[in-house]
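Final report, results section. Input specification for complex C-07:
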Amino acid sequence: MTVDETIRQVLTEHARLAVPVETLTDDTDLFGAGMTSHASVNVMLALEDAFDFEFSEKMLKKSTFESIGAIRAGVTEMTGG
Amino acid sequence: MTAARTEPRVMTTSGEVAARMAAVADAVAGPAAADVDERGRFPVETIAALRAEGLLAALVPVESGGGGATLAELSEGLVALGRRCASSAMVVAMHHIQVACLVRHGHSPLLHDYLGELSEHQYLLASATTEVGTGGDVRSSICALEVADGHFRVEKQAPVISYADDADAVLVTARRAADSPESDQVIVLCRPPDLELEQVGEWNALGFRGTCSTGFVLRASGDADSVLGEPYADISTRTMLPVAHLLWSSVWLGIATDAVDLARRFVQSEARRKPGTTPPASLRLAQTTVVHQQFVDMVNSSLARFAAADADPDRLSSIGFSVGMNALKVSASTLVVDIVRECMLICGLASYRLDSPYSLGRHLRDAMGAALMVNNDRIMANNAQMLLVHRGE
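Structure output:
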């Protein structure tokens, strides 16, 4: 799976969005799409498991998880990919 | 809703807030406390006295006509008020939590102007965050704003709006729009004449009886600029939650402080009766004083933690900060009960009697509410989840 496919799968399983993940663009606001802060914690844990890394303390903020694009940037930064 | 009231009003200045709140506490809130509690009525004379001192705008910046006080100054004033009448102090705390949200997040010209109006007329703000059907989760809403042509409309089934009948406006959470998910919330300022409140039920509770925390069906409309621009999720994390926990803890510290004062006076009266012998309760008083000092220091250090994080939205939004502010609420609400109970053991039956100068009945009843207003179990569940991803700093 590509990075994007993995991110979308994690969102499908854990973000509990009000809309199908397929309808999301890179910059759709995930919190606006119904992701709660509780769900975002699960998204983060699942991302760490899927990509085998840990987000740094400074990345543990809402903006890191606000869109697929932001998540990809965070994952890329932390995995050096 | 209260009608417009008469002037004059003396503007407060920074630095005097705590002393002036303490003066109102001693002169007005204390003498009225028993009646407020017994009848479960709004502490009208205390709020009027604070209003006359300009203290309802204590947190509003000086340039908007307010007192420009810090949270630490307000906290000190709330401790003083909580010592005399915890219901009054809780009303004032809840009001200032709403003021803090407006000051820090009300960026539209309309909301900015409203702060000036609030200062001039000393408006009292109430809050409608909980909703029937959400199971007490304030971070989700069922009701939604209907926004059209620059106006909003909202209807909310609120299980609790404290002192709504005596407030001049209500800050209401709702979904941003009819098609928004439950978690996409905003806060909107709702005020008369476009605010209708239909009371549901009564408030006949064990403690905090003067907060008049009844349920209402709220219907409101108004200019769409009355909606605070930032998402409620951010306002909650950065302001409402930490400020609420700081100010509530200050009120509870006031209750605990008065209980310790009564216990100390009781032990001293025993000591005077038999000079040369140390009263049996004096050791427990010493132990309780240790715990009370922990409480004081915890509130002060939490105020300092907030002040240090204040300028940095990222730090205010950090997991470590939120976990710490939640820990404050759980600790303070637990300590107030522990301390009152210890003070009852110190004073014995004199504290158990309702007609004794050492009675701690009201203290105990008020203190028991602390863990329930936003239930500690819910707060611990939030912390438990945040700790799954916390990095420790």
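The first helix of chain B runs from residue 17 to 39. Chain B has three domains: 17-124, 126-226, 232-387. This concludes the modelling results for the funded period.
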